[in-house]
UniProtKB/TrEMBL annotation:
This is RNA methyltransferase. One of its GO terms (biological process) is methylation. Residues 121-263 form the tRNA/rRNA methyltransferase SpoU type domain. InterPro entries: Alpha/beta_knot_MTases, Ribosomal_eL30-like_sf, rRNA_Methyltransferase, SpoU_MeTrfase, tRNA_m1G_MTases_N. Keywords: Methyltransferase, Transferase. Pfam families: SpoU_methylase.
């Protein structure tokens, strides 16, 4: 059973995991280095625990203590009860959902481990917007993608904003980082995957004609919002595919495009 501790000092060192949550650069450096991430909101905290992440501590406003009572009773980590004003001073923002948890990261698997058992893989290049990362993971989970591979410069899927937007789906879809880019794509191809680069380029094949759902193994490549996939990534692909557009629209937001493409990849997929 967790220990419920009332804290009224924003400088209390026991709250250090929650300091400056709005300072993106600080948290980007600190969280992976210290092996932690922040889960925000009741549903996300519960999903993190259900998928095996160990809790370091919880930070709750008073009205959330009863809501999270079962979790408090189950975990050995300390639970800090604070006033909403104090939570805002510590974190740097008004904690609307009233519940935060500091969770312990798990070691990331190697890319080849994921490729050994996956059939439908997402490959992201330089996607640095945390909202887009979260949206893509949520769609990947919902539409049956098996794994996600990230280029070395992609944003952290376990950053608080990514986790929140994904509604905890980042915990459900296994992911790994490719150590070299785009050289790491060679290992994806060698594992039997056909590399499909999603691009609005007119020379690309319509995703309907490409029929990725009929392929044995597919790796769908996505680039950053605005810039899209780099020339190097496009040249490394086996085929370029596009989503047909109407009414003069040239492209979709990468999060929306990902959802459409994932549906095309997974539709008609044979059951294992």
């Amino acid at each position: 059973m967790a220990e419920l501790i009332t804290v009224d000092d924003p400088d209390d060192p026991r709250l250090s995991d929650y300091i400056g949550l709005t300072d993106v650069e600080l948290r980007r450096r600190r969280e992976p280095a210290e092996g932690l991430f922040i889960a925000e909101g009741e549903k996300v905290i519960r999903r993190a625990r259900q998928t095996g992440y160990e809790m370091r501590s919880m930070l709750l406003s008073a009205k959330w203590v009863d809501v999270m009572r079962d979790v408090i009773d189950e975990v050995p980590a300390p639970v800090y009860a604070v006033a909403p004003e104090l939570a805002e001073r510590v974190t740097g923002y008004h904690v609307h959902r009233g519940a935060l948890a500091s969770m312990q990261r798990k070691p990331l698997p190697a890319a080849d481990e994921l490729l050994a058992t996956a059939r439908r893989v997402v490959v992201m290049e330089s996607v640095n917007d945390h909202t887009n990362i979260g949206a893509i993971f949520r769609s990947a989970a919902a539409l049956g993608m098996d794994a996600v591979l990230l280029s070395p410069d992609c944003a952290d899927p376990l950053y608080r904003r990514s986790v929140k937007v994904s509604m905890g789906a980042v915990f459900s879809v296994p992911y790994a980082r490719l150590e070299a880019w785009p050289k790491g794509l060679e290992a994806v191809r060698e594992a039997g995957f056909r590399l499909l680069a999603l691009t609005p380029d007119a020379k690309a094949t319509s995703i309907d004609e490409a029929a990725p759902h009929r392929l044995e193994r597919v790796a769908l490549m996505l680039g950053a919002e605005g810039d899209g996939l780099s020339t190097r990534a496009l040249m490394a692909a086996d085929e370029w595919v596009r989503i047909p557009m109407a009414h003069g629209v040239d492209s979709l937001n990468v999060g929306a495009a990902a959802a459409v493409a994932f549906y095309a990849v997974a539709t008609g997929r044979p059951e294992n």
